[in-house]
From TrEMBL:
Organism, scientific name: Carya illinoinensis
CDD domains attached to this UniProt entry: ADK (cd01428)
GO MF terms, alphabetically ordered: AMP kinase activity; ATP binding
Descriptive protein name: adenylate kinase
Main location: plastid
Keyword Lyase: no
Classification via InterPro entries: Adenyl_kin_sub (IPR006259), Adenylat/UMP-CMP_kin (IPR000850), Adenylat_kinase_CS (IPR033690), ADK_active_lid_dom_sf (IPR036193), Chloroplast_ADK (IPR053021), DUF1995 (IPR018962), P-loop_NTPase (IPR027417)
EC code: 2.7.4.3
Highest taxon of the lineage: Eukaryota
Coiled-coil annotated residue ranges, if any: none
Compartments, record wording: Plastid, Chloroplast
Length: 603
């Protein structure tokens, strides 16, 4: 036993969710109880889930609107979003090819959210007609038939953004930036939107929309022969074709737009949101409205006191929250059921680590968290706790405007081997009946599916796969690999996977060789890991814990009883990689890492 004074003591009685340094690991126990323990049943799991659902909408971190309020503005049409806390207004960029419907959506956004609509075309015309210095310079280029230089356009945009109405109401930047250099100019000037919306419409639809457009030279109104015909025969008789709306010129403009859009996308890759623009305008706006409401709510949440955390930068110069505010591992983890505070602590811990990994560009991730309620080998396993964790992750990503596909593997095998792991029985039905909030996340941004390449849709941004696992006679890895191949560079997150190799039916294990299966399973990196440690072959008492939280090191903790009857966790050692059994035993025994290791010991 080492003196506890030699260790760095952590305050483990508080479970306020804050950024952390390491993850939780799983225990290999079949049952547990430190003081009060109870077995779980389907009914207890569901009652726990339902109870949490009732309280969930009041928890700010669980995607309720918090202090955001909806108020009617009598001077404007419709509902507008305001906040009862001091937060910055929305800043939105919208992009779309010619005839993508961008103008229509801009009108609806301005009407709903009251943003200042800024179009570079309108700015150029206004500056030229007003005879300003910038306008006169732009006019020289326009009269000469040349493009207005980026620095002039950027100066106009900056001037407009600096006006008081844009600062107070927020802004909607329409069709700008149009090139990589323009986007970089805005970045250098610290002009960055909360979200970059791209209206995505197939080329053939865009061409048909353009060549069917007609201009009324009297009113300046734009019609479409099929989609928006003129009201009278008199108007129809005077309509003309705009010179840019020939098929040849439209296709040329589309090619230019695509090249520029591809170049710009790298600047806004972490905030870009593609919207299917080949739908009725009401459906398109419904999705945009949900997206902007969530962005607004997220800004409010980020402005809350206590959400500011120390900055740590990774190798990509991205900012991470530091570990200084982490209050340590919760105590009494063998007490079942876990308190709501303990569950919330772990949900937030997992979420923050996963977000950091995704922001770092990691795409093949796994979460391994086997506290007693999440360990299927224990009789206190609660499927409701697993579903709550999945819900927190999915709703958080949906808050960021991402489309999330939550996947549960279905039945595998044939004949006598048909079935699915007991751990997953009924999981999909539970997910479908859960409370997913009141703002339309489920169905719009979150969908439930199974495991396989057919489940990957173009609009999906992130895939959360619930406890994928092999079963005797059946292997999920073939379907899982087909799905990740179809997902490409989009993040795939495995929650408590169990991909160890198992015997196959008649000695045959699917189409992939064993080495390839193991190699594929190992391609997923931990973004979070937590495991309680016990003496080998026992389940009581807890001796310590191993935890890792991306991008930090694995940390080994020892549980220490205090004279007051309380307990705490003190750190023993850290590891750059997940330590093996001998390394853990040596740390507990105080042996240097290069000494001969014993075969027996903890875990």
């Amino acid at each position: 036993m080492f003196p506890t004074s030699t260790f760095s003591s952590l305050h483990s009685t508080n479970v306020t969710p804050t950024p952390s340094l390491s993850y939780l690991s799983t225990s290999s126990l079949s049952s547990s109880s430190s003081t009060s323990s109870s077995s779980s049943s389907p009914s207890s799991s569901l009652s726990l889930l339902q109870s949490s659902c009732l309280h969930r909408r009041h928890l700010r971190s669980f995607c309720a609107f918090g202090d955001t309020q909806l108020r009617i503005d009598p001077k404007s049409k419709g509902l507008k979003v305001t906040c009862s806390v001091g937060s910055e207004p929305l800043k939105v960029m919208i992009s779309g090819a010619p005839a993508s419907g961008k103008g229509t959506q801009c009108e609806l956004i301005v009407q709903k959210f009251g943003l200042v609509h800024i179009s570079t075309g309108d700015l150029l015309r206004a500056e030229v007609s007003s005879g300003t210095e910038i306008g006169n310079k732009a006019k020289e280029f326009m009269n000469a038939g040349r493009l207005v230089p980026d620095e002039i356009v950027t100066a106009m945009v900056m001037t407009r953004l600096s006006r008081q109405d844009a600062k107070e109401k927020g802004w909607l930047l329409d069709g700008y930036p149009r090139s990589f250099s323009q986007a970089q100019s805005l970045e250098e000037l610290k002009i960055r939107p909360d979200v970059y919306i791209v209206l995505d419409v197939p080329d053939e639809i865009l061409v048909n929309r353009c060549i069917g457009r007609r201009l009324d030279p009297v009113t300046g109104k734009i019609y479409h022969l099929k989609n928006f015909p003129p009201e009278t025969e008199e108007i129809k008789s005077r309509l003309v074709i705009r010179r840019d709306d020939t098929e040849e010129k439209v296709k040329s403009r589309l090619e230019i737009y695509k090249k520029n859009a591809e170049a710009i996308s790298s600047t806004y890759s972490n905030i870009v949101k593609k919207i299917n623009g080949n739908r009725p305008k009401e459906e398109i706006f419904k999705e945009i409205e949900s997206l902007l409401l969530q962005v607004q709510k997220d800004r409010v949440k980020m402005m809350k006191p206590g959400n500011i955390i120390p900055e740590i930068k990774n190798k990509k110069n991205q900012v991470y929250g530091g570990q200084d505010n982490w209050r340590g591992i919760p105590t009494k983890l063998n007490n079942i059921p876990h308190s709501r505070e303990i569950r919330k602590y772990f949900y937030t811990d997992v979420l923050e680590a996963t977000q950091r990994a995704i922001n770092d560009g990691r795409t093949r991730l796994k979460v391994e968290i086997n506290i007693p309620e999440l360990n299927p080998e224990m009789d206190v396993y609660r499927i409701g706790t697993l579903m709550e964790l999945v819900r927190v992750l999915a709703l958080s990503f949906a808050d960021d405007g991402k489309h999330v596909k939550v996947c549960v593997q279905g039945s595998m095998g044939e004949g006598a081997l048909i079935g699915m792991p007991l751990q997953l029985a009924g999981t999909r039905q539970i997910l479908e009946f859960m409370d997913w909030g009141d703002y339309g996340a489920m169905g719009n941004f979150i969908k439930i599916g199974s495991v396989g390449s057919k489940e990957v849709d173009e609009q999906d941004d992130i895939f959360v796969i619930v406890a994928p696992q092999n079963a005797v006679g059946n292997c999920i890895i073939d379907d899982l690999k087909a799905m990740t191949d179809a997902a490409g560079n989009r993040p795939v997150i495995l929650i408590n996977p169990r991909l160890k190799d198992l015997p196959g039916s008649s000695g045959v294990m699917q189409t992939m060789g064993r080495d390839k299966r193991l190699e594929y399973a190992a391609s997923f990196e931990n973004c979070y890991f937590f495991r309680l440690l016990y003496y080998a072959g026992t389940q009581y008492p807890i001796m310590g814990a191993l935890r890792m939280s991306f991008p930090y090191r694995y940390e080994l903790y020892k549980r220490v009883d205090e004279p007051s009857g309380k307990e705490k966790y003190v750190i023993l050692s850290t590891f750059p990689e997940r330590p093996d059994t001998d390394e853990v035993n040596d740390a507990f025994l105080g042996k240097p890492r290069n000494k001969t290791k014993e075969a027996s010991g903890i875990w």
